[in-house]
Design brief:
There is one protein chain. The chain is about 25% helix and about 20% strand. It has helices at about 20-35, 65-70, 110-120, 130-135, 150-155, 175-180, 195-205, 220-230, 240-250, and strands at about 1-5, 85-95, 125-130, 160-165, 185-190, 205-210, 235, 255-260, 285-290, 295-300. The model is unreliable at about 10-45 (pLDDT under 50). Pathway: Cofactor biosynthesis; riboflavin biosynthesis.
C-alpha cells in the first residue's frame, strides 16, 4: 500500500525520465492556486495528517499504521457537549455499483477488509440499516487483541456496539447480533413502532432507542441519541438507503470510500440512495491510499 495524498516529502517516488516528481507537480499546482496544505482549516484533521507512515514504499501497512491513518479527529468538546463525528465506510466499483448480487463482498478485497476491521476497531458504535443486516448477515463486532490497548486508552468498550436502524422492527431476533453480542446491540426506531415488536427486541437483549416521532427514524435525532449514550465516534456501513438519509440530513462528517477496480454493469445500487438533495454537498479529500489498483479515499465535509 502507498499513500498518494496528502503529498509530503515522503510521497516522492522515483524521478521519471522528465525529471519531474509528484512533489514537483504538487508544488506547481499549489503555486498556481495559491493554496497549500497549511491553508486548510484545522477542523477534521487527525493525528494521521501529522504522523503518516512512509508513503512511497509499496508494502503492507501494519494495523497500528492503519489506525493512525484513520484516527478520528482530535477536537475539544463544543458548547453543546462532546463533539460527535460520523463517518461512513462504503465500497464502489468503477461504474458506481455498491453491491454485486446484493452484497458488497464480491467487489471488495483483503486490504479493503483490513481497513473495514480497523474502522470498526476505532468506532464506539456501527450504525447500519435493517436491510443491510438482513442481506449481509450481520454479526456482532468482536474484540480484537491488536486494538485492545488503543480502545482502553480511549475509554471505549472492548468492541463497538452495533446500532440497527429499523422502522418496522421486522428482524430475526434469534440472530447472534441480538442474542450474544459482546456489547448490547442498539435498535433505533420511531415512536410509532409496534409495542409487541419493541418487546420482542428487548426480550432478545437489544436496547431499543426511540429516535423519531412517527414510524421512521430521524437521522439527526439518531446521532444525538447515540451521543447521549456516550457514543461520539460513529461509523456507518450503510446500506445505500441509510447513507442517503444521513447525507440528506447533513449529519455525515466523513466518507471513507473504496474504489474497486471492477466493472459490474447491471442496475446495482449506488453507495447512497433515496431522493436527491437540493444542492450537492461538497466534501474535501483528506487522504488517498492505493494497493493493487484499489483506491482507499477519505473525504471530509467542507
Amino acid at each position: 500500500m502507498r499513500r498518494l495524498f496528502p503529498v509530503t516529502d515522503q510521497t516522492v517516488t522515483d524521478r521519471p525520465a522528465t525529471g519531474r516528481t509528484v512533489t514537483d507537480q504538487t508544488v506547481t499546482d499549489r503555486t498556481a492556486t495559491g493554496r497549500t496544505a497549511a491553508d486548510r482549516p484545522a477542523t477534521g484533521r487527525t493525528a494521521a495528517d501529522r504522523t503518516a507512515p512512509p508513503a512511497s514504499v509499496d508494502r503492507e501497512w501494519s494495523l497500528d499504521e492503519l489506525a493512525a491513518a484513520y484516527a478520528y479527529p482530535e477536537a475539544e468538546p463544543g458548547p453543546g457537549g462532546p463533539r460527535v463525528w460520523l463517518r461512513a465506510n462504503m465500497v464502489s466499483t468503477l461504474d458506481g455499483a455498491a453491491q454485486h448480487d446484493g452484497r458488497s463482498q464480491p467487489i471488495s478485497d483483503a486490504t479493503d477488509m483490513r481497513i473495514f476491521g480497523t474502522l470498526r476497531a476505532l468506532a464506539d458504535v456501527v450504525l447500519v440499516g435493517a436491510e443491510t443486516v438482513r442481506q449481509e448477515g450481520y454479526r456482532p463486532a468482536r474484540a480484537r487483541a491488536e486494538f485492545a490497548a488503543l480502545r482502553e486508552a480511549a475509554g471505549q468498550a472492548p468492541a463497538a456496539a452495533i446500532a440497527v436502524v429499523s422502522a418496522s422492527l421486522a428482524l430475526d431476533w434469534s440472530l447472534p447480533l441480538f442474542t450474544s453480542p459482546l456489547v448490547p446491540t442498539i435498535v433505533l426506531t420511531g415512536a410509532a413502532a409496534a409495542p409487541d415488536r419493541i418487546a420482542a427486541a428487548e426480550k432478545a437483549g437489544a436496547r431499543v432507542v426511540i429516535a423519531g416521532d412517527g414510524m421512521g427514524v430521524d437521522p439527526a435525532r439518531a446521532v444525538r441519541a447515540l451521543a447521549e449514550l456516550g457514543h461520539t465516534r460513529l461509523l456507518t456501513e450503510g446500506g445505500p438507503r441509510l447513507l442517503g438519509q444521513l447525507v440528506a440530513a447533513e449529519v455525515l462528517d466523513e466518507l471513507c470510500l473504496t474504489v474497486s477496480p471492477m466493472l459490474t454493469a447491471g442496475d446495482a445500487q449506488r453507495i447512497a440512495g433515496g431522493p436527491s438533495v437540493a444542492v450537492p454537498h461538497r466534501f474535501e479529500l483528506a487522504s488517498l491510499l492505493e494497493e493493487r489498483g484499489f483506491l482507499f479515499s477519505r473525504y471530509h465535509r467542507v
